Amino acid sequence: MLCVYCRQQPVDPRWQPFCSERCQWLDLSHWLDGDYRVEGPADDTPPDMDPDDPEATDL
Ligand SMILES: [Zn+2]
After folding, report:
1. 1-59 per-position pLDDT tens digit
2. CB 29 within 8 A of CB 16
3. How far is the CA of 15 from the centre of ligand 1 (A)?
4. What is the three-state SS of 1-36?
5. Which residues are 10's β-sheet partners?
6. CA of 33 to the centre of ligand 1 (A)
7. CA of 34 to the centre of ligand 1 (A)
8. What is the domain extent for residue 11?
9. Is residue 54 part of a domain?
């Protein structure tokens, strides 16, 4: 059984389902990062804000 994060190292019983504390933290930080960061650098299209949509102008 391989680490669910790196999928290269065997799972360590102490850190399962990860191979190490490092992978456990990396996975956790990655999860939290995706949860808290709403807008990413690659995403420049804001949702529900289309200037060409008359129904979107709610002013
Ligand atoms: Zn790993």
Report:
1. 999 999 999 999 999 999 999 999 999 998 887 765 555 556 565 667 666 777 766 66
2. no
3. 9
4. CECCCCCCCECCCCCCCCCCHHHHHHHHHHHHHHHH
5. 2
6. 18
7. 19
8. 1-36
9. no
